[in-house]
């Protein structure tokens, strides 16, 4: 089971330049629920995800990440949320295995070799885990990010276009992963334009 | 859940090892720094020929050389993360203190390695005599830690700016100045066969400690948006 | 307010030119000091204020404090330049050289370097919040070096600079008229600084 995490958006808005991307978003998502954010390119899907991840500040409003009735501060959010996004880039000079080892340690989690091998196998990277990420295709890199998500086991998953660059097999894989994550109480927020990804969602936000 | 929480030290170590492995595989910074140091040293030596420099000038040259080598390579710890885009992942998963001290440790290690390689060349090229070896090494270590501490935190600042490299030197110099001046004077004393005072060493150590505490407090503001 | 200030400044200038007696040993050159000391004082004051507002900014994240910090630093640079130039001229006329790395000259030069680095840093970051955050951290970090410099610089360079107005014995070694005029000049200069400062901050607020 994943750690209980709920997300509370209070009157969140973001202005870039002179234009408001979105205004007045109010929402509560509880553990085990899924939110889908849809909207055309440039409508601010990725920005909203980054704001929830704490990588970007909203112009007004606040984001509360709550675990066991306690609001997490910036330090405590490390390791309790994970982001998969085209903007996340893993270390090209490390192997897939080393990347997972490094990031789990960074979150303070000790993973042994069998565990990391198991995560790589589940995303279909069993044979490539000892190769440098430099040599990976974009689809393989996307799979590695999911392996990392499995290893860190954050209670809150932020997924930005999770199936981009993946083949049919990979898409099926992440659909399974999202389904299993929700069963195990993870809170999932997906920014997507793929109708089938939004099917998991309990709530939907459409940005314009 | 398979989670055993690792201590801060383990996380710091993980970052240092990661940087170390990446550096070992590409050898970009080490070789650039070493060549930079070699060229600067050779140009000084060629320019002065067989003439012997006064001790205070030699000491100043040594620290200027180390400072500019540091400026050529130490910003890489954050600039590289920014340029390759990996800083985002580091920001999501890494806590500020672990990142700062991991990078600081790596920079210190790089600079010490460089110093170990430069010092013999320096002695050979400039024909100098070191009288108090143990104190000399202590001064070098303290000075290197100071340079690394000042440049790690400024590197984090310049990572998001334009014209990173020039700005890096401009910003680091005023912060480093107290340490820089006292390193030069202490080294000059050693070269003149005068034993430096304990207060000189204490000053350098105190500066390092204060700088690290301040970086540690201020870095969280930089790291968490 | 402006009329009062200009009258005040004019009367100080009049007093400096016509009322202050030529000093023993320095002659009429002493009149430069009535310009030099106030601008040097303001350049240090601006540095302190800028650091103070940086702390405020980091604590509250209110962008107004960033404007204040930046306005104080820009004016500080200007006053610091004036102090350096007037000091160099004074040095040439009394000690025979424009520049000789006197401790005071070294200190003001370092202040100039810090101001310069701070403003270059500001100009090279586009995003407003990033700029405010990074420059506040830099202002504080450079402020930290001040006590060390106060300790280290006098050990390096021999000083020809006159003792401060109130010297270590706590005795005033100046003519009473001179002291009054000097205080008036310092007051005028500080008021001028504050006037320019408020103007700059108000301009920012209007354009916001």
From TrEMBL, chain A:
<dbReference type="Pfam" id="PF00005">
    <property type="entry name" value="ABC_tran"/>
</dbReference>
<dbReference type="GO" id="GO:0005524">
    <property type="term" value="F:ATP binding"/>
</dbReference>
<dbReference type="InterPro" id="IPR005895">
    <property type="entry name" value="ABC_transptr_haem_export_CcmA"/>
</dbReference>
<keyword id="KW-0067">ATP-binding</keyword>
<feature type="domain" description="ABC transporter">
    <location>
        <begin position="7"/>
        <end position="208"/>
    </location>
</feature>
<dbReference type="InterPro" id="IPR003593">
    <property type="entry name" value="AAA+_ATPase"/>
</dbReference>
<keyword id="KW-0813">Transport</keyword>
<keyword id="KW-0547">Nucleotide-binding</keyword>
<dbReference type="InterPro" id="IPR027417">
    <property type="entry name" value="P-loop_NTPase"/>
</dbReference>
<dbReference type="GO" id="GO:0017004">
    <property type="term" value="P:cytochrome complex assembly"/>
</dbReference>
<dbReference type="GO" id="GO:0022857">
    <property type="term" value="F:transmembrane transporter activity"/>
</dbReference>
<dbReference type="InterPro" id="IPR051782">
    <property type="entry name" value="ABC_Transporter_VariousFunc"/>
</dbReference>
<keyword id="KW-0201">Cytochrome c-type biogenesis</keyword>
<protein>
    <submittedName>
        <fullName>Heme exporter protein A</fullName>
    </submittedName>
</protein>
<dbReference type="GO" id="GO:0016887">
    <property type="term" value="F:ATP hydrolysis activity"/>
</dbReference>
UniProtKB/TrEMBL annotation, chain B:
<dbReference type="Pfam" id="PF03379">
    <property type="entry name" value="CcmB"/>
</dbReference>
<comment type="similarity">
    <text>Belongs to the CcmB/CycW/HelB family.</text>
</comment>
<dbReference type="InterPro" id="IPR003544">
    <property type="entry name" value="Cyt_c_biogenesis_CcmB"/>
</dbReference>
<feature type="transmembrane region" description="Helical">
    <location>
        <begin position="130"/>
        <end position="153"/>
    </location>
</feature>
<dbReference type="GO" id="GO:0017004">
    <property type="term" value="P:cytochrome complex assembly"/>
</dbReference>
<dbReference type="GO" id="GO:1903607">
    <property type="term" value="P:cytochrome c biosynthetic process"/>
</dbReference>
<feature type="transmembrane region" description="Helical">
    <location>
        <begin position="165"/>
        <end position="181"/>
    </location>
</feature>
<protein>
    <submittedName>
        <fullName>Heme exporter protein B</fullName>
    </submittedName>
</protein>
<feature type="transmembrane region" description="Helical">
    <location>
        <begin position="201"/>
        <end position="224"/>
    </location>
</feature>
<keyword id="KW-0813">Transport</keyword>
<dbReference type="GO" id="GO:0015232">
    <property type="term" value="F:heme transmembrane transporter activity"/>
</dbReference>
<keyword id="KW-0201">Cytochrome c-type biogenesis</keyword>
<keyword id="KW-1133">Transmembrane helix</keyword>
<feature type="transmembrane region" description="Helical">
    <location>
        <begin position="57"/>
        <end position="79"/>
    </location>
</feature>
<keyword id="KW-0812">Transmembrane</keyword>
TrEMBL record, chain C:
<dbReference type="Pfam" id="PF01578">
    <property type="entry name" value="Cytochrom_C_asm"/>
</dbReference>
<dbReference type="GO" id="GO:0020037">
    <property type="term" value="F:heme binding"/>
</dbReference>
<keyword id="KW-1133">Transmembrane helix</keyword>
<keyword id="KW-0201">Cytochrome c-type biogenesis</keyword>
<feature type="transmembrane region" description="Helical">
    <location>
        <begin position="177"/>
        <end position="201"/>
    </location>
</feature>
<feature type="transmembrane region" description="Helical">
    <location>
        <begin position="39"/>
        <end position="58"/>
    </location>
</feature>
<dbReference type="InterPro" id="IPR045062">
    <property type="entry name" value="Cyt_c_biogenesis_CcsA/CcmC"/>
</dbReference>
<dbReference type="InterPro" id="IPR002541">
    <property type="entry name" value="Cyt_c_assembly"/>
</dbReference>
<dbReference type="InterPro" id="IPR003557">
    <property type="entry name" value="Cyt_c_biogenesis_CcmC"/>
</dbReference>
<protein>
    <recommendedName>
        <fullName>Heme exporter protein C</fullName>
    </recommendedName>
</protein>
<feature type="transmembrane region" description="Helical">
    <location>
        <begin position="137"/>
        <end position="157"/>
    </location>
</feature>
<dbReference type="GO" id="GO:0017004">
    <property type="term" value="P:cytochrome complex assembly"/>
</dbReference>
<dbReference type="GO" id="GO:0015232">
    <property type="term" value="F:heme transmembrane transporter activity"/>
</dbReference>
<dbReference type="GO" id="GO:0005886">
    <property type="term" value="C:plasma membrane"/>
</dbReference>
<feature type="transmembrane region" description="Helical">
    <location>
        <begin position="70"/>
        <end position="95"/>
    </location>
</feature>
